[in-house]
Write a structure and sequence with these properties.
By secondary structure, this protein is an alpha/beta fold. The chain has a single domain, classed as Alpha-Beta Barrel (TIM Barrel), CATH 3.20.20.410. It has eleven helices and nine strands. Strands 1-9-8-7 form a four-stranded parallel beta sheet. Strands 4-5-6 form a three-stranded parallel beta sheet, with helices on one face. Strand 4, helix 6 and strand 5 form a beta-alpha-beta unit. Helix 9 packs parallel to helix 10. It is globular and about 50 Å long.
Length: 297
């Protein structure tokens, strides 16, 4: 992910901002009897991006990936609508408990920008995506950076038409969604009233996307490492924040790790998992290839 990339990450203040004042209220209103669920993964599973992750002789990348992580942020679905048979194959290649978190196809978000023509496309997308069944996690919509508040009516129509039995998270990138308190307040209220997650993006060049405003019982975080030694300390800060949110009532954590150059995403993800296992009541699997390689944190 090159979005938010900077040439000199050492100049960036990576401190996580304080929580939005209304986040505590959202967390307090959650169903605290629900068990904590944590899904952590990378954005891709192909060998080219996840270098040195797959053991020699690995035949099927997804099948192996799914034995090491319990989730994938499925960016592939952003570029095209896959046929029904592909979703069937993905389902069959992954174990019980694995979750896919697919991105909505770009013809909806970027090409037609939520206009009225997107709904037949969306219907087709959801028809095939639903084949993932119980392995379908939260679907997410990522809007273009130039999609601003002037398109508010399109957002309202899209949210109103979204099927309520499918979880949705939305990522708005235009800075005006957050710079104007009236606009941001209306946006947060819309997501909250419709039980949709407000995605948090942690990337070097767009610290404004760390609004720290949760809108339902889900923390959906897209973390972008800067290929810099600070990547690990930043993950430590996230573990601490998620631990605090869990104390306040958070029950769903969905955390996906990218890098500007996808060299060590599995290593960063394994590091995060080990820290989460120590601080929260979960025991996620730590990738075996990293353990065998003698990697310690």
């Amino acid at each position: 992910m090159k979005f938010g990339r900077v040439d000199h990450p050492e100049t960036i203040d990576f401190t996580l901002p304080p929580d939005h004042p209304q986040t505590a209220g959202i967390l307090a209103g959650g169903l605290k009897r629900e068990p904590l669920t944590v899904y952590v993964g990378c954005a891709k599973w192909n060998r080219r991006d996840l270098k040195n992750f797959y053991p020699r002789g690995t035949g099927d990348e997804l099948s192996y990936y799914a034995t090491q992580f319990n989730a994938i942020e499925l960016n592939a679905t952003f570029y095209r609508i896959f046929p029904e048979s592909t979703y069937d194959q993905w389902y069959e290649k992954t174990p019980e408990g694995f979750k896919f978190f697919p991105k909505i196809v770009n013809s909806v978000s970027h090409l037609r920008r939520l206009n009225e023509a997107v709904f037949p496309i969306l219907d087709e997308y959801l028809l095939f995506t639903s084949k993932l069944g119980k392995k379908l996690g939260t679907i997410f919509l990522q809007m273009h950076s130039n999609f601003g508040p002037k398109n508010w009516d399109r957002v309202l129509r899209f949210v109103d038409c979204w099927p309520r039995d499918i979880r949705l998270a939305i990522e708005f990138r235009h800075p005006d969604w957050y710079a104007d308190p009236v606009v941001s307040r209306e946006l947060y209220h819309l997501l909250q009233e419709n039980n949709m997650a407000n995605i948090l993006v942690d990337t070097a060049g767009r610290r404004d996307l760390l609004h720290m405003r949760l809108t339902n019982d889900e923390a959906f975080v897209r973390y972008v490492g800067a290929n810099h030694k600070s990547d690990f300390a930043r993950l430590d800060d996230w573990v601490f924040r998620l631990k605090e949110w869990h104390k306040q009532g958070l029950r769903k954590i969905h955390f996906f790790i990218h890098q500007n150059q996808e060299l060590e995403s599995p290593l960063l993800t394994a590091y995060f998992i080990e820290k989460i296992n120590k601080e929260l009541p979960v025991q996620l699997h730590i990738p075996e290839t990293l353990i065998k390689a003698g990697t310690t944190f």
